[in-house]
Amino acid sequence: MKLFFDFLPLILFFGSYKLAQSQPGPAVELATAWFGPLGTGPAVDAQTAPVLLATAVVMAATAVQIGVLVARGRRVDAMLWVSLVLVLALGGATLWFHSATFIKWKPSVLYWIMGASLWVSHVIFRHNLLHALMGGQIDLPALVWQRLNFAWIAFFGLMGLLNVYVAYSYPTDVWVNFKVFGSLGLMLLFLLAQAVYLSRHLKNEEAS
Q1: Residues 84-131: tens digit of each pLDDT
Q2: Is the dihedral of CA 88, 89, 90, 96 positive or negative?
Q3: What does 131-145 look like in DSSP terms, one character per residue?
Q4: Residue 144: which residues within 8 A CB-CB, separation 6 or more?
Q5: Among 171, 31, 14, which residue's Cα sits nearest to residue 98?
Q6: 142 burial class (0-12, 13-18, 19+ CB within 10 angstroms)?
Q7: Fewest beta carbons within 10 Å, which of 18, 30, 52, 137?
């Protein structure tokens, strides 16, 4: 249930985009009524209507998600707050200018912020955030924690670049599919490779 709740904004973004894409006439009418008077962007058409509606949905869903956590007295992760700020700022720009460009940058900016947080913490503060977050659950040598830290920094940096490449090289519907399935698939592959690497060191630690 928690996993579903965490991914609910992404699921709603994908579902609303595909629904609007399958009903171009009503989607254009609805998006024009809601966002047509906004800003100085071009007229809403069948290409921009789905992403405008999906952006509005994910903005509302992310805000509600955090509201539910706060109302229930749950801790809201810092990156979830960052995600909310980004989706409101870049999503708002998308709605204002009637352009998908801004919301397409959101995943890249979030990836780079997470990577930069790990890098700054290590280089400037001499603190390993991964160790701080996971050290109580898994016991590893300091060198392994350092390698994991740099691996995540590289992964976040490359994912941000890959998202920009897909956003500018392919149509919006391809980017939406990549955002939902491609990025999650690459994350799972990275976690699997990491698990294989860690299992070797865990066995060495148990043997010693």
Answers
A1: 999 999 999 999 999 999 999 999 999 999 999 999 988 887 878 887
A2: positive
A3: HHHHTTT----HHHH
A4: 198, 201
A5: 31
A6: exposed
A7: 137
